[in-house]
Amino acid sequence: MPVAWVVWPVALWLATVGNLPLWQRLSGLGLTAGGPALLFPVFGVLAALLSLLAWPRLLRPLASGLVVVAAFNSHFMWQYGAVIDPTMMANVVHTDVREVRDLLSWSLPLALLGVAGPPLWWIWRRPVGWRRPVAQIARNLAGVGIGLALAVAVAVPGYPHLASLARNHKPLRYMVNPLNTVYASARLVADQIPQQVQALIPVGEDAVLARPVAAGGPAPLLVLVVGETARASDWGLNGYARPTTPELVDWQARQGLVNFPDVTSCGTNTQVSVPCMFSPLTREQGGDRPGRHENLLDVLQRAGLAVLWLDNQSGCKGVCARVPSARPAPDPALCDGDECLDEALVQGLDQRLAELDPARRARGTVLVLHTMGSHGPAYFKRSPADRKPFQPECTTVSLADCPTEALRNGYDNSIAYTDHVLGLTLRWLEAQARSGPFAPGLLYVSDHGESLGEGQVYLHGLPYAFAPAEQKRVPMVAWLSAPLQRASGVDPACLGSRAAGPVSHDHLFHSVLGLMGVQTAVRDDTLNLFRPCGT
Ligand SMILES: [Zn+2]
């Protein structure tokens, strides 16, 4: 069959059926009139792209790839209201088997079959008739020209429509299949290239301990818990109608635990937020972009402290590259294969602490627990059967198919389990203060929030500029034992009285340095939460 019989029908199919979620969204916004102004340019650009790829042994595999990508994208747009932008692509690249397993559902093969099946059959049904190279180049260029001409011919008169769409409905641009993926992949590759040739920028080379621990005296022991997908609005301590944090409420009443109700995350996904939390740069300064700087853990280690990253999730996103790290031991009571409940992080802490370099430990220790938290969409997997206070629970990953109440129950059970894990950690820390020369403390903050169907959006990872508050508002708590209060000079009552103000991930780097008594020129005390109350 002639090359054009592959290029034009496949481009048309991609522009129409391959973009059903986009057309659906447009009509949902009452913008059907803008449809043709967008449809023909998309069709033209796709035809131009396919014409460019029209070479023997290339066209059919690449066209098939684009068709399958469009089908995958459509599925995730339908299921979760997701859009495909560069950070979402970064997530896809850095994901692991467990995350993928959680996202699979029966509707995926159906979407693949319905959206990708017919064009795949069309592309592969008969051999393509190729011409001599020079003639093929001419044909391809003609195809590119006609495709682009069509796009321009419609886009120019439709410009007012398109411009207002682009201005008022930015997420739509990330819904154009499969061009969104082509663009995001290209951006991702372009971002990686300079990063690899540029050297890492050292941070805090002057870091020293401002208040060295007296020989045999209590050394600071901070457990820094990196939460996952916990959102501020479902946090009992923040006044949520359901008791999702009973243990922390108790610690607040009896032990002076401080809750921070107004905390903003740096990103809307793990890939952006986790490095940003540990970055010396604020979000404004570029902490949310792929980092070239050393981070908080490097500075702590350089100051002579013991640092350990314990990971119960998809890795530390480069943050722990130069410090010791480990995964929890696979206890069959807490783990299903390689996937463990967060209690597994707490279980081995005695041994982990004992194994750290004694000279460093005597100066101070920071243990980072990277939790699984409320990682979706399989919220029901984030809490054990005997810790599910909210019933019934959604047990499918097709979130839109779940009754809102059941979805909320599964999610809130994961928050309640996080509360339990934090309670266990706090009790472990308290025991360390009694048994050894330690001055323990805990800091918990989630990496980003989650959408649970508000505005038909699920999960997280929408581009920051237009992500809803549910994805950006996160819970945070701090607890300082009496020995740590003495060592750092921080008064928890003062901290509690100031906690209501706005806080963000920007504060973490400087606050941890302050609490651990690390002095360096990069520490900015205007971003040190503890500064006004002591250290
Ligand atoms: Zn995350």
Keywords:
535 residues; alpha/beta; Alkaline Phosphatase, subunit A; eight-stranded mixed β-sheet; two-stranded antiparallel sheet; 14 strands; 48% helix; binds zinc ion
Decide which structural class fits the backbone: alpha/beta
Classify the fold: give the CATH topology of the largest domain.
Alkaline Phosphatase, subunit A
CATH superfamily of the largest domain: Alkaline Phosphatase, subunit A
Strand content: 5-15%
Report mean pLDDT, rounded to a whole number.
92
- Using the 3D structure, state the CATH architecture of the largest domain: 3-Layer(aba) Sandwich
DSSP, total strands = 14
Broad shape: elongated
CATH class of the largest domain: Alpha Beta
The hetero compounds bound to this protein are:
zinc ion
Helix run count: 22
Helix content: 40-55%
Low-confidence stretches: none
The gyration radius over C-alpha positions equals 26 Å
Looking across the biggest beta sheet, what order are the strands in?
A: 5-4-8-2-9-12-3-13
Taking the alpha carbons of the first and last residues, their distance comes to 76 Å
How would you characterize this protein structure?
By secondary structure, the chain is of the alpha/beta class. The chain has two domains: 193 residues, no CATH class; 279 residues, Alkaline Phosphatase, subunit A (3-Layer(aba) Sandwich). The protein contains 22 helices and 14 strands. Strands 5-4-8-2-9-12-3-13 form an eight-stranded mixed beta sheet, sandwiched between helices. A two-stranded antiparallel ribbon has the order 1-14. A two-stranded antiparallel sheet has the order 6-7. Strand 6 and strand 7 form a beta hairpin. Helix 1 packs parallel to helix 4 and helix 5 crosses helix 10. The longest helix has 32 residues. The model has no long low-confidence stretch (mean pLDDT 92). The site of zinc ion (ZN) has 6 residues, from loops.
